[in-house]
Amino acid sequence: MRQVMWALAVLLVSMISIDAGADTRALQESAKTAFGNHSGGAVIMRVSDGKILAIVNPKVSAIQLHPPGSVFKLVTGFAALQEGITSAGAKFRCSGNQPIGDVLLYCTTPNGHGTISFPEAIAQSCNVTFYGLGRKLGPKRLLKYARVFALDRKVPGYKGVQAVGHLPASPVIHPAQTAQMAVGQANGFKITLLEAAEMVRRIANGNAHVAGIDNSKTRRNLAVIRSAMRLAVISGTCKNAAVGGVEIAGKTGSPEAADDSDKRNGWFVGFAPYKKPEIVLVVFVNRGHGYDTAAPIARRIFSAYFGKENKR
Ligand SMILES: [Zn+2]
User: Fold this and answer.
1) Per-residue pLDDT tens for 231-240?
2) How far is the CA of 276 from the centre of ligand 1 (A)?
3) How far apart are CA 301 and CA 242, in angstroms?
4) Is the pLDDT of residue 131 over 90?
């Protein structure tokens, strides 16, 4: 009798693991299909332990390096909160551009965002707000926080071949370069999709995992970033990633392509569910924008994972 019980137990366990494998393969397939005619890559990472549940196009996702663009505003924003340079209730002015020395840097919208709060500056991806925060932080602290979010090392949850991100040389001399770095667009600043996933996992987990800065302030500040990411899906640049019945949080990016500055690539990074994060999703599209190319692909992948209809 005991042997029969054991046999049943073994059978049951193997059935469960076969099912899990089938789910992973199905997720992988859905993620690939979600791209339609677009090319790019995607990573789905489990929040609890960083395991990679699916990876689309490992060459693009794990080996190639890409300028992070506005998805890096999550790091700049957290750094500015953590260093006491800003607060969740702070307000900023955006007229659409910002002269820095002899360089004129632009916002994402030509007429500017007007008066904008800190969470809205993330949700609407206001460059001018982040140029200012980046200059106050300075290059050394921007680099420090890029390392806090592990943008300079391999992601342990992925066993395949992977590259390691390039951070810009420090110190960045010209203040305009520091401003550009704050919005993820400095010369030589490139990361993998895997690293972007690990960055968001640390935000979703509410724990930056770094000795010396992991305290109640850290957790409170990460919660501010998470709620701004939720706002981005409700009313900001990630609206196209929204799925009915699942609370998704995200951030887009549309940096100049590393190989052709006239072209842009689209990023979406995010996690769900907002209150109890299970997965991190990173989508990268060659020759696209975050808002209208990467976010809709993210919506289809989230829909597949959560088994929801593909609707707003
Ligand atoms: Zn702006």
Assistant:
1) 999 999 999 9
2) 31
3) 11
4) yes
Cα of 246 from ligand 1 centre, angstroms = 29
User: In this structure, which residues have their CB less than 5 angstroms from ion ligand 1?
Assistant: 94, 107, 113, 126, 128
Residue-wise DSSP of 25-76: HHHHHHHHHTTTT--EEEEEEETTT--EEEEE-HIIIIIS-B--GGGGHHHH
pLDDT at 17: 45
Angle at 293 between CA 292 and CA 299, to 5 degrees: 90
Give 312 Cα–ligand 1 centroid separation in angstroms.
26
Q: Please report which confidence band the pLDDT of residue 12 belongs to, taking 50, 70 and 90 as the band edges.
A: low
Q: Convert the pLDDT of each residue in 26-80 to its tens digit.
A: 999 999 999 999 999 999 999 999 999 999 999 999 999 999 999 999 999 999 9
CA of 95 to the centre of ligand 1 (A): 7
Fold of 31-306: Beta-lactamase (3.40.710)
Percent of the chain's residues with pLDDT above 90: 78
Write out the H or E segment, with its range, that includes residue 193: helix 193-205
The amino acid occupying position 110 is P
Each domain of the chain, given as residue ranges in start order, spans: 31-306
C-alpha 110 to ligand 1 mean position (Å): 8
Would the pTM count as exceeding 0.85? yes
Cα–ligand 1 centroid distance for 70 (angstroms): 12
